[in-house]
Structure formats: structure tokens, C-alpha cells
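Friendly challenge for the regulars: who can give me the C-alpha cells for this chain first? No prize, just bragging rights.
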Amino acid sequence: MKLPEFSVRRRVTASMMIMILVVVGLIALSRLGLDFFPDIEFPTVSTVTTYRGASSEDIENTITKPLEQVISSVNRVKKVTSVTQEGISLVMAEFEWGTNLDFAAQDIRDQIALYKTYLPEEASDPLVVKFNLGQMPIIFYGIIAPMPTFELKKFIEDEVAPRLERIDGVASAQVFTTDVREILVDIDKSALESRNLSLDQILLGLRAENLNLPAGNIVERHSDFLVRTLGEFKSLDDIRRTVVGSTQQGQIIYLEDIADVKDTLREVRSVARIQRQKGVFLIINKRSGANTAITGEAVKRELATIRKTLPANIEFYAAMDQSEMIQRVTKRTVDNAWQGGILAIILIFLFLLNWRPTLIIALAIPLSIVTTFIAIYLAGYTLNLLTLGGLALGVGMLVDNAIVVIENTFRHIQEGKERREAAVVGASEVGMAITASTLTTIVVFLPVVFASGITARLTRGLALAIAFSLIASLFVALTIVPLFASLFFKSKIEDPKAGKKLLWREFTGAKNFYRNLLHKALQRRGLVLAGALGLFVLSIAIIPFLGTEFMPSTDRDMILLRVKLPVGTSLEETNRVMSLVENLMTQQPEISILSVQAGSPGEESAS
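First reply, four minutes later:
Bragging rights claimed.
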């Protein structure tokens, strides 16, 4: 059968519209980032200063208090807090929301520069950093192997970290361990005094010998060579043969004459274990703006390739993996979205009992979602827990506009209109009504868009995702749904009774029950109003009994346990207590990876 010309044109137009919409939507989806939370730059700037070996009281008087006064004078500072521990000073400045932290951090650096000359010489230069959720490590690996940890650390730094840092999206791959190599020069006091030497002479001798210095240039014919004198220590014998002085008779005094040089480890002030064994830790940080999930997957793929070239006895354990967490959460959210869409389609079919309008609505849902991806991409947002949650909430509302247009179009076809005319008239009659209804729902979320503070930063993506999905559903309902209706609906209904299979057609019992209930409610208006008022008062009264929290509790596969012991507890005792906790944890069959850190420089009693 030959189709009319206008029908062919409509089919071509419909196909082109859908293809363009789907292609653009998929391109936008491919460029959307996938994160757990949106990157939020908290208005907090921290200043970290280290002063190794100094007590907390000395650091507080010489570093923390002066820096607090200096930082408090910076414009738009809301609150200044500090933490002083043995060997470290941490000063945190909280600014008003909306402050440009780049300029704020620079203002703090300028103010600190004026006071820097008054800091103790042994203290490090204050480090000014901004806090951003995106700066948190995306993967935290614990690595163990049957070799000394400082050797394992160097091996990972040479063989693994550089290859991971070459991955697009990775900012750094940091390796650390609690065992730090240290060359100990154990000076014999009697030998030192017998040769009339002082410790300052020893220090000056070591500093002068352990240097690489430029030695000028050599021009050879047409070539110019840069000459350097390499004087850095390469072995313990180089250190032992360092000249530290001479006797009155002119005899050279070497360091080995007055001291014993040992290759040891620095004094341990903290303990870290993975799977109850000492090891090293590899921290992967992503670049600003990089996608957490994609970067994490790329790191794991590259690491799987690297491990084929490493010794088999080196084991990696992912103590924390944000990318895996994001994939799991987003998968559950997406599952909820498509399951809700299928349930909505099934329910619509049960009410309409006609596959044609059900098919149109089933096509309208994914088209609306694809259109929403375009709006989210243009707005500069990523797919995260909040925007996906907004999409999941919007799925239930996506079908409302389409159902109204479909029902009105179907009614005009029942009245005898041709399907093309019925589609145009049906959509035009309800166009203003569904537009007003959609805008009314969107206006509810409008205050969230213009709010400020961290709550607004977290909920703005949710509100915009719902608003975008509703606007997309309105666009689809007023354009594509009438086009589908003009193509799929029958032009003529042969059996008028069969054409009345609309809402409640097969649910006569429920329809009659609702009619009787409504009739009785209208007869007892005062009782109905009193009941509504009572429910309103009861709802207000139970508000104080509702719990409040900043973020809802989530089910994660990781537990962070913090054990705090009395102030002054030694590291050995802290380690013993943590070993007991480890024993209890390993008895739980659900625990697969166990990472422990006990003590830290400047924190004696926490683990």
C-alpha cells in the first residue's frame, strides 16, 4: 500500500528529529563527568607550618598565635581556628560564602610574608592551601612485599608512580611509609674533645662536602660544555672520609676518627600497616576537573598492566577506591530510574489498555531524559549522586505531560477527527495547561537555585536536574508526542465502546468507590475541614521529634574507626591497643582489607 506524501514527510521529519535529539544527547552524556559529589570549594584556607622537635606550647606562642592575628586581619574572614601539636601548627581561616578563594589565599600569603621574618629559623615556610572535595585522593593503595619498606618505597617510586602519573587525569601518585631512611652520625664525645673539635665544625664539614656545584664552561671547537663538580655523598664510606678538621701538627681528621656512621631508620613516631603487615601506601590524586570514575578506572587498568612486570610477591590492596564507590552508587541510582520508568509504563498500560498510547509514552521517557543530558551539560554540571537523584525523581513526572496530550488527542479521534488534526488540536488545547502545571512545579525549586551556602551548593544540582527534566518532558510532550500520535493512532475507531478504554475503564469498582467517598465528603464539609486542620496541626507538632542531619546516612563498604587514648600514651602502648583491635577485626569474615595507622608526628595518643 502506498503511503500518502504528507505521511512520508512526517515520518522522515519524525525520524530526523529523534535522531538529532538522540545523537546530541548521547554526545552530551559522553562528555558529562561522573562523580560521587559535585566539586565543592569550601570557603576555608588552611596554613600549615612545621617545626620539628618543638613542643606544642612553644609552637603555639611563636607560630600559631601570631599567625592567627595576621590572618584575622584579612578581608572577609569569618572565623579563625587553629590546632597546635608537637612539631606542627595548623591555622584555618573560614571566609564568607561567595569569597573568591584564589584572591583570599593570595591575601593570606601576602600577610604572612610580612611576618615570616619573625618566625623561628628552624620552622618551615607556612604552606597555604585551599580545601576542595575534588582534592581528596581517589584511590588509596596499601602495598606489601618481603623486603624492607624503605626499599619497597623507592621501588614503587621508580617503577609504578611515574607510569601512573602519565595517565590523563592523574595529578600525582604519592608514595609514603613510616620507615624513613636516615644516616646516623654517632659522635664519640671523648674523641671529639681530645681533638679540640666542636659540633658546629662537624656540621659545617658535612654541609661543605655534600654539594654539587657548577664549575663553569669549556669551549671545545664548536661545542660549549657545562662543567659541574659532583660532590654529593654516594655511600657511607664517602661520609666516613669527610674531612672535619686537622691537628696542630697538620694531620687530617676524618669523620670516621671521631664518629660511627650508620645506615639506619629515623626514629619511629607512627606505625602504619596493611593486612597486619608493614608496607607502603600509594595515594592517587586526580587533576582539577578530571572525572573521578574514568580516572580511577584508567588507573586500575594501567596498574593491572604494570603488575605483570613486577615481582609476584608484591601485593596491592585498595584500602579506599572512590571510583568503585561512584560506580556502585550511580548504578543503583540508574537502576532505580529505569525500574521506575518501566513500572510507570506498565501502570499506564493497565489504565489505558491500549498499546499505541503506551508505546508513545514509553518513547517519550527516554527522549526526555536524553534531552535533560543536553541541558545538564550546557549548565556545567556532572552526573553525580544529586543530579542522578534529580533524574530519578523526574522520571515519575516525565509521563504526566505526555499522558495529558495523549488522552486529549485520543478523545478527538473518538469524536471523528482525522488523526493529524486530532494531534494538532489535542496538543493545542492542553498546551497552556501543562505548561502552567510544569512551571508551577519548577518554581518550587527556584529558591534553591538562588540560595547560598554549602546546602545550596549540594542541592542546586538536584533542583536543576528536576527542572531540566520537567522542561524536557514539556518539550517532548508538545512536539514529539503529537507527531507520534499522528503516526501511530488509528484514524477511525470502529467500535465506539472499544475506543473508551481510557482511564478507569476497567476499574469500575474503584471508580464507584471514589464517587461514593467524594459524595459523602461533600455532605460533611465541616468534618472534612476539621480533619484536614487536625492533620496540619499534628504535622507541625511532630517536627521537633524528627531527627536532623547534614547528609543522610549511606551504606558504604568501608568503616573508619578512630581510637583515642589518654594524652601522653606512648606509641608502643598505642600500637599494642591497635593490635588488639586488628585481632578483633580479622575475626569478622566480612572484612577483606584492613588498614591501620597508629600515632603520627605531633599526635601522641591518637590512632
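The first strand starts at residue 41 and ends at 50. The longest helix spans residues 454-488. Your move, everyone else.
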